Amino acid sequence: MEGVSEIFRDVEDTNLLMKCYHLACLIFRLSFDPGCYSAEVTAQKLYQEFRKQFLSVTNNVQLSRCLNTTKEKCANKENIPKELESSGNLAEEIKVKARLRGTTDWAPPRFQIIFSIHPSLKRDAVVAAQNFTCAGCGTPIELKYIRRLRYCDYLGKYFCDCCHSYAQTSIPARILMKWDFKKYYVCNFSKHLLLSIWQNPIFNVSCINKTLYTKAKELNRVREIQEQLLHIKKLLKTCRFAESVLKEFEQVSSHLTTELHLFSMDDLVKTKRGLLVPLLRDILKSSISHVENCELCQAKGFICEFCQSSDVLFPFQMATCSRCTVCKACFHNQCFKSGECPKCLRIAARRMFLESPSVAM
């Protein structure tokens, strides 16, 4: 009788597993959108639904079995049901597997930003490196169908026609390395990824490729205006009459006037089309006009201590003004000599005077 009951229990567990699996598949099919989900998201969501449904049912089964075997436990505390032990091990196994990506032969693409251009390799070599599977869904590909696979220029891998719909977009690495804005074919996963980060300022040109400013004159012009706007915006924030001028800064993304060298893909495309420079130039022009006609702003300027000219200097006047890297004072370019800043000399002399023994007495 005990053997028969064990068989019925195994059958019951198998039925529960099948019900959970079909329920998870049904829920996933109802919420699946092939244009928005990658293979990785597909696998993770299916696993999460299956795990949630299975564990909830397993816990209920464990509870009922515990209630039915209470008397047996009281009679013999050392007799632990194997079903509970195996169910607990299964739950732990599911938790471990939930952290795994894909299988031993295939892993779905990661949501990552790629800053390098993939080298041109033969199709057979790339597909062989993929273990003859689609890089998006892991479907095995026979040798005679390799020519039908579609290449993703962003990930540098081949995909089946279900994961690659011949979508086209600009590639960040080609823009940042070669100033190349041509549109290339990408898989559905890459298209969704690039669209999601299109407006995000995550590309620091000075860290990724400093030479890009020499290749792209329009981008270098944006950098020059951007540097001026950084200085003049700090000055305008201290003026109580500059509210209307500061509102003009809202025409562009805030990172363009608060942090140098930082761009989004949208900023780079606008720069290439010639849309960003005129907009930034207009903001700079109105800001300079305010500073020149505002008494409060004029009072916060600098006088060149070398020539004692009446010209009021500001840090944003980069064409005619040099700034001491230590005390931040401004001087004429032709007057300033590095290491001979009058303000720094005065500060050093005052410090020595205050530290002298006679002053301490």
How would you describe this structure in keywords?
disordered N terminus, autophagy, phosphatidylinositol-3-phosphate binding, single chain, 10 strands, phosphatidylinositol-4-phosphate binding, mainly alpha, Rubicon like autophagy enhancer, 4 domains, RH_dom, 361 residues, Herpes Virus-1, two-stranded antiparallel sheet
Report on this model:
Residues 150-351 form the Rubicon Homology domain. Keywords: Autophagy. This is Rubicon like autophagy enhancer. One of its GO terms (molecular function) is phosphatidylinositol-3-phosphate binding. This protein is mainly alpha-helical and 361 residues long. It has 4 domains: 2-97, no CATH class; 123-197, Zinc/RING finger domain, C3HC4 (zinc finger) (Herpes Virus-1), CATH 3.30.40.10; 206-300; 312-355, no CATH class. 52% of the residues lie in helices and 8% in strands. The protein is built from 16 helices and 10 strands. The chain has helices at residues 2-31, 39-68, 70-75, 82-97, 123-129, 172-178, 188-197, 205-208, 212-215, 217-236, 243-248, 265-272, 276-293, 295-298, 342-355, 357-360; strands at residues 150-152, 157-159, 167-170, 183-186, 203-204, 262-263, 302-303, 312-313, 321-323, 330-332. The strands form 5 sheets. Strands 1-2 form a two-stranded antiparallel ribbon. The chain has a two-stranded antiparallel ribbon with strand order 3-4. The protein has a two-stranded antiparallel sheet with strand order 5-6. Strand 1 and strand 2 (157-159) form a beta hairpin. Helix 2 (39-68) packs antiparallel against helix 4 (82-97) and helix 10 packs parallel to helix 13. The longest helix is centred in the N-terminal third of the chain and has 30 residues, at 2-31. The chain is elongated. The model is unreliable at 1-9 and 73-78 (pLDDT under 50).
